[in-house]
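Supplementary notes for students who missed Thursday's class. We covered one full example, reproduced here. Read the sequence, then the structure, then the short commentary at the end.
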Amino acid sequence: MFGCSPAQVTQAGGILHALATEWRSLSAGSEGFLTGGRRGLEGQQVVWGEQDSFQHVNNVQYVRWAESSRVNWATHFAAAEAARGDRSRARRWAELMTPDSVGLILKSIRVDYKLPLTYPDRVSVYHRLRHPPSSQPSPSSLILDAAVFSHRHRRVSARVEEDVVIYDYRAARKTEMPAFMRDVLEETFVRQQDEVVRARRRIWDLMRGVERLEKETWDRPDAVEDTGGAARAK
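Structure (token representation):
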């Protein structure tokens, strides 16, 4: 605040407001995670009973959060297809989370814990495709990345890697990705890349705003003096 004119205080307030309201979309988006709506698990309350004897959230809970986020991630596509009026594709997307036809089965999951969480807090979990469908390691699988964000600490508390198998329950075997999935996920991967560009551009805009304010206030001839008489601007 030292050395800021009223106009510069307003500018600084705008930057602080942006950081307070956009931190999740910027942090997640800069890594290619799509936020908002039913794309993941947003604002999940950390429950006191989820803590263990070490007084932090038990490691198993992160896997449960990732599972809920993955279900929301898949059903989001069903809702999007329904909104476009394609009920057939919406039904097929919804069935992916059921044992009725072609579905998604978790083959393996790996969690890299970054920060212990405690009550009270909220978490948001987002998923992204690591590769486009055409470049997946196997035509019958999806490699997904997920990130668990702590609202209290405003940072990633865990990173998750999931290997998901596309399974035909009627034939009782793995199957290749259906065309309706491939088309949507190819588009989704492109949107992930676009989100990285958008978020990082926004971050750099905010950083330039901070640097501009620092320079302007430092260069002001009427900078506030401290009790020792030395000019000081922050």
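Commentary. Residues 34 and 191 are 8 Å apart (CA to CA). The radius of gyration is 23 Å. If anything here is unclear, bring it to office hours.
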